Amino acid sequence: MHPVKPLTLTTAIAWISTLLVLVTVPTRLCSWHAFDYYDGNLVAQRELAKGAAEWLEQDPNKLAFRTGSARFDSEWYLIIHMAAVLGFVQTAREHSEFRVEHARFASRALERLMLPQGRAHDLAAWGEDPLTSLSDPRGHLAFLAYANLALSVHRLLGPESRFPEQNALITEALARRFEANPLPLLESYPGETYPADNAVAIASVLVFDRATGQNHHPQLRRSIAELRTVATAQSSGLLFQRVNSVNGSPEDAPRASGTAMAAFALGYADLELAKPFWSAVARQSTTHFGFGGIREYAPGTVGSGDVDSGPVVLGLSVSASGFALASARRFGDFERFRDLFSGAWLFGLPTSKGGAQHFAAGGPLGDVLLFALLTASKPS
Amino acid sequence: MKATLRWLGLAALVPWLVYELLLARILGVGGATVMLGAASDASALALGAMLLALTLRIYLVLVVPPWCGFRLVKFGIDAGSTMLRDVPTWWRKRFGVGRD
Q: N or C: which end of chain A has fewer CB within 10 A?
């Protein structure tokens, strides 16, 4: 038997060290700033806000996306401005230093959200403007849910809120439609019903109630129950991504991206309402070498990504992981927040320039969404 | 040590510089293409730059630190064992112990 050569022993020790470094150092590098964001650090929030504001200072037409689908172009335009409103309002509420400047930015984002390009996707699908057809029974959630969440959250800022009449009219229309529709859930597009969009619409009404002291809860009770039962896969707790517009039966798998967005939106209204959805999303979380992500599909289900989930790599969804950051912060789950943050920080290509935080992999949508998600706070 | 430093320069510094250059160039071009898996206004060149930047970042974060750990530990053990081997000689020279 040959004696072990010193070189071999050295190499073996070096390889063990390599493995130890692999499982500790990269994740530490990427989670370096996690606590700053989790804790609502003023400087961290300011940098995110500045990154988002730089997009808002551009001509809205320059933000026009060319995804190859007119529907997605308009949806992205709407989402980016909704996220901007949410981010600026919640940071203005968290830090009084931001109040004046961020209220101004939130108003600007809201004005741009209400421009025709923010609802072009809805108008094209329904053949009628969602804002001039509020007396009709049809859902229009593709625009109304997201616009009204932004309007209602903006109203939390107080008297300087913009578009209070539209906010009240949309809220009344949504509450009335939820109560009157044969199916407790409303359509986003003709023949297309998405539980996640309904969660956003419900959240928008409840936040309006919080801001104004009104009470639409009785009109929403049936829809909230539907979300929790029929629209939820009882085995995983995840929302079905799409249900039949007539009988509510599932037309897509239960998925984390829609559920995470529902938890995010409902978190603005009522943490208890958001909790079951967050719990289901949290059960989908996993880590690879300390980098966290959310599995898009429940165990035993295999599927691909789409425009809702983003690319699904190793079973992990980009958008579910992003939306989960917000709920992890709201529900005080720092470990999960840190793991998810590490993943976002690794793949988001973060870069700081002139005190503005950008995420090159996400472009304007990534910058503004992460601004809203990383600064999401508990409803007060 | 010189070889280790040279390798560090080549294997980490150059990719890092390229990465930073790519970030500066591609920023604002429309990276949502990569994030959301749909075509955007990013040109093929910008998309290629984005994917290269992503690859370099994964390499810089996941490969370089473990590799540095490997080199440093190996260097440390080699240098340490050489020092330990030289201790008796140094001891004899310093204190004259064991001199014939």
A: N
* CB-defined contacts A:B, below 8 A: 124
Complex ipTM value = 0.79
Nearest to A67 among B31, B39, B73 (CB): B39
Rounded distance between C-alpha atoms, residue A363 and residue A265, angstroms: 22
Name which of A320, A39, A365, A327 is nearest A203 in CA terms.
A327
**Which residue's structure tokens are 């989790």?**
A38
B96 has a chain A CB within 8 A of its CB: no
**pLDDT digits 0-9 by tens, A255-283:** 999 999 999 999 999 999 999 999 999 99
pLDDT in tens, A280-325: 999 999 998 889 999 999 998 888 888 888 888 889 999 999 999 9
The Cα B87–Cα A19 span in angstroms is: 32
CA torsion A262-A264-A268-A273 (nearest 10°) is 50
Enumerate the residues of chain B whose CB falls inside 8 A of the CB of residue A14: 69-71, 73-74, 77
